[in-house]
Write a structure and sequence with these properties.
mainly alpha, 10 helices, 2 domains, about 200 residues
């Protein structure tokens, strides 16, 4: 509902409880139709990144505020993607989905303080991974997500796909990239977030 209110406010629509509820219902109907049709896809750079990080034996969690996240993640076939990309990882088995690859999934849960920017979703993810939050990093494309991860004492990779770089930087993301292919993976495996060929910011 907070997302629905934010959208209405962004487009200058007067926000009332009734209008928010109606927008949220319509949005969910559209999402249900897209999910049933299998018409939603993932960014290739995101799939390459997830495979590389998990392939380096780094535990990973999904921490989306969306209650549709698990359904969407479960539709993305990593085995088919890896085959198309010529990627070879021992963890990729026939039928594996993006949802399967996560060690924890805290997406869509109802938290006491709501969704982001409170840090509870990220703190819960770290706890379920069994990793101290200050030894974790988050990938975020929204200001509220950056704020939540920083409040959890995590390093943050700000992902600016549509011109959000300044806003993500102002929210204190440690690095800003326009694609996850720009992240320095060897540095990441050593506990640092950095762009390729740039100074490293430690998160450990």
């Amino acid at each position: 509902m907070s997302g629905a209110r934010a959208v209405l406010s962004y487009f200058g629509v007067p926000v009332t409880d009734a209008r928010t509820e109606e927008y949220a219902r319509r949005k969910q109907r559209v999402m249900d139709e897209l999910l049933r049709a299998g018409e939603l896809t993932a960014y290739p750079d995101a799939l390459r990144f997830v495979l590389a990080v998990r392939g380096a034996e780094t535990p990973i969690a999904a921490a989306s505020s969306s209650k549709n996240a698990a359904r969407l993640l479960g539709q993305i076939r990593l085995d088919a993607f890896a085959d198309r990309e010529g990627l070879r990882y021992d963890l990729v088995r026939p039928g594996i989905t993006l949802l399967d690859i996560f060690d924890a999934d805290v997406s869509g849960r109802d938290f006491a303080h709501g969704g982001k920017p409170p840090p509870e979703i990220f703190l819960t993810a770290a706890r379920e991974l069994g990793v101290p939050a200050d030894r974790c990093f988050a990938v975020e494309d929204a200001v509220s997500g950056v704020q939540a991860a920083k409040a959890a004492d995590m390093a943050v990779i700000g992902l600016a796909r549509a011109g959000e770089a300044d806003a993500l930087a102002a929210a204190d993301a440690d690095i800003i990239v326009s694609t996850l292919d720009e992240v320095d993976l060897p540095a990441l495996s050593e506990g640092c977030v950095a762009r390729m060929k740039e100074p490293q910011d430690s998160f450990s």
